[in-house]
What we know:
The protein is α+β, with helices and mostly antiparallel strands. It has 32 helices and 44 strands. Strand 36 (about 865) and strand 37 form a beta hairpin. The longest helix is centred in the N-terminal third of the chain and has 18 residues, at about 215-230. It is globular and about 85 Å long. The termini are far apart. The relative contact order is 0.07.
Amino acid sequence: xxxxxxxxxxxxxxxxxxxxxxxxxxxxxxxxxxxxxxxxxxxxxxxxxxxxxxxxxxxxxxxxxxxxxxxxxxxxxxxxxxxxxxxxxxxxxxxxxxxxxxxxxxxxxxxxxxxxxxxxxxxxxxxxxxxxxxxxxxxxxxxxxxxxxxxxxxxxxxxxxxxxxxxxxxxxxxxxxxxxxxxxxxxxxxxxxxxxxxxxxxxxxxxxxxxxxxxxxxxxxxxxxxxxxxxxxxxxxxxxxxxxxxxxxxxxxxxxxxxxxxxxxxxxxxxxxxxxxxxxxxxxxxxxxxxxxxxxxxxxxxxxxxxxxxxxxxxxxxxxxxxxxxxxxxxxxxxxxxxxxxxxxxxxxxxxxxxxxxxxxxxxxxxxxxxxxxxxxxxxxxxxxxxxxxxxxxxxxxxxxxxxxxxxxxxxxxxxxxxxxxxxxxxxxxxxxxxxxxxxxxxxxxxxxxxxxxxxxxxxxxxxxxxxxxxxxxxxxxxxxxxxxxxxxxxxxxxxxxxxxxxxxxxxxxxxxxxxxxxxxxxxxxxxxxxxxxxxxxxxxxxxxxxxxxxxxxxxxxxxxxxxxxxxxxxxxxxxxxxxxxxxxxxxxxxxxxxxxxxxxxxxxxxxxxxxxxxxxxxxxxxxxxxxxxxxxxxxxxxxxxxxxxxxxxxxxxxxxxxxxxxxxxxxxxxxxxxxxxxxxxxxxxxxxxxxxxxxxxxxxxxxxxxxxxxxxxxxxxxxxxxxxxxxxxxxxxxxxxxxxxxxxxxxxxxxxxxxxxxxxxxxxxxxxxxxxxxxxxxxxxxxxxxxxxxxxxxxxxxxxxxxxxxxxxxxxxxxxxxxxxxxxxxxxxxxxxxxxxxxxxxxxxxxxxxxxxxxxxxxxxxxxxxxxxxxxxxxxxxxxxxxxxxxxxxxxxxxxxxxxxxxxxxxxxxxxxxxxxxxxxxxxxxxxxxxxxxxxxxxxxxxxxxxxxxxxxxxxxxxxxxxxxxxxxxxxxxxxxxxxxxxxxxxxxxxxxxxxxxxxxxxxxxxxxxxxxxxxxxxxxxxxxxxxxxxxxxxxxxxxxxxxxxx
Length: 1048
């Protein structure tokens, strides 16, 4: 029965003895009766207590059921569409979320009241568990509380909030903000947690806290998570990395094997009755044991012959670290048979076995059924704590309960709360997450079963689940935070892969490596994944398709040059690094701290990366290959695209227009977007449906000023452009005689031998000179927009444009130019890219015309189109460098007699670049000398200083962050700076005082800056080395020289 009480706090019988449906009905009745405080008692009144369990401070938090459960009756008014005037609600509205209790209590105050107040006890226990044991809090550490929405019920068209939670936060002495959540614990359900059907039907429990009372419940819960994902989550979670043929090839290799947990031996992965490899599980864990003197357990050349025999692992099983033992037992208990563990399945003292397996991590983890992530403890001796109850003997069960058991308390009025943490917060604090190798193991996996802090979590590409929270196993309404999770859907990868590159660099750098030289090997699987979706190769971890942007990384703490040295004496894969070291221009060349792409520093550039690399970069990058040949970066992109041309198995999803637009702005150089030189086969006759589109002529006019124009890169096609409609019908060479223009068409094209469809948005100058005039009087500035298949538009302007306009000799004698003929005769042109010019150069022809592909000499006065497909302003490079063919002269000590610039010729296999490169960039750009001084309050973070850049007159002209010790010894010195690309603006932190160095207001100054690299000379190697990246006003480069740079 129900009894309405006066607003006092009683510790009542919690509703756990009621059926879930009865509990919800009771709660709804209480709310309907206007009660904000509810005490539930049994029919005979038994079990009721009058002991006060909350202090006065915690009573003010109003910890009632209706604060945690969003009731249907919480909406106290009915929508009246016929009424417009404000009116009073049926009852007073109470704000349930969005309120914060800042500085709620200090750690000392919680300690003093935890014995008498259950809520204070919960808060104290959470802070002590997650920070107190490490000494990161003091008696004066304060905590704050915030009410927020948690769970949601999702329908086909909308979602409805269903639960709320309290976010507990406190700031540690290190400055890091820790967080935990207080959830309302659901009443005990008679249905077992492994019943997925019951879980889906019990909507009242979703997103409420869950307490497991039986160790077997946890095993059943884990199995239900896996089964739900495998059977119900669709293609997102089924898709594996690499093709089926690639994985089958790996399975057939003699160096790849797995553990048979039934026969306890190492063996090749068997094939099923359908001819496909049997499902297998992978393990990700922290190497090392609690006792360093323990006998080594890894597989080597001595014991491998024993371990491949039936029962070969039984004799050494008890000598294995506890984590490995638990993983083997767990796989067997869940009903699977095969497990891959690197320390046992790779012959550790065989360089061949190690090298071949490490190169296949994307296939191993990307094809396993799921990965067990052992994030408990400091090393492999800890085991899987959350699984101890059903994996180990009763004698050692609960050994860790005191430090990892649930934190929960009854608070009276039917409220029981428990403390939980998000998966990412839990993982972030683990030693496992600080190891470099574990990063790609998690990212490449389709499903992860994560053991951390005595709890178990499940995460796949669409869903996150915790043992502490009731869910139905789907992603609908899930509130667990996935924003910081590295495991993402393939749809997200396809939409913006470069964004993931920026994110993964921050998440990967600063992690620990036993062998610092393994930085690329431990990132190889991530590089494979990113290359697959960016569709371009990587150079020392940086995508070639966005190379100008990839150079602009910044350290978050003091970093050191990465040490070189061989992993294995016979390792020849990166031999050039042994003598020259890792590149200073890549983040892989540094260690000791985390590195990121600072979004504030890159302000304006990340809004549309494709636009930025197209309009605001100019350097022709070259890299030395293993023979010392100078290879153009765009050549490597073309070669890689050719190799990927026949690739199959890349999972694609149907994307909306908005998703395509989002994808387009993350694309790289136009060359990398178009991938290959395109040949469009034209016909003299075609049919086309009615199409309406906007004339791009006003937009073209805005681009005529070139790269340096601050407005050009920001302007989209104007929405008020005149609409032009092409009617359906035939067109041929006689059409103009009938006054008809050729319609837009879809042309069959091919990437060499790969048939594709090109959707050409054809330029349509009108008869009006104002709509065609580009500001230069030159026809070559006409812009084309080309799209291949589902790829985003690649925007290009070509200096290699010819109008085969049939100008008669009489017209030429009268001074009639091509553009005039174009205006008078045709309104639509067909666009064709040819193999006779560099990729990215576009030849514009009239439909049906035949003739030469020779380039016109009439180039845009304000700029030109380079081999990357970029629009380059003439002010960016000297006139002598426009064709990019000026020879390089700077030699290397290892290649002292000449500089050989090798270009790739598809018809000549000998010109194909290898996959091995020296860490040396060679290029040409502007160089100048400027002063650097430390700013008065210039400390950015530990070991870094914010510095000011001054010109030779002493005027402030830029900003840079440098190693504090390095600049302290060189305060005020003159340094060498090179311009690498355009920057949009300074942030307030970079430029706190606007000095009018340029005659503009701060908010008017856009694209007046360079991104610059501060260089220092390595005389021994004859190379420049990167010290830091910053921004400088372009006018500070008044005294400049166009120099050839070797950056190592």
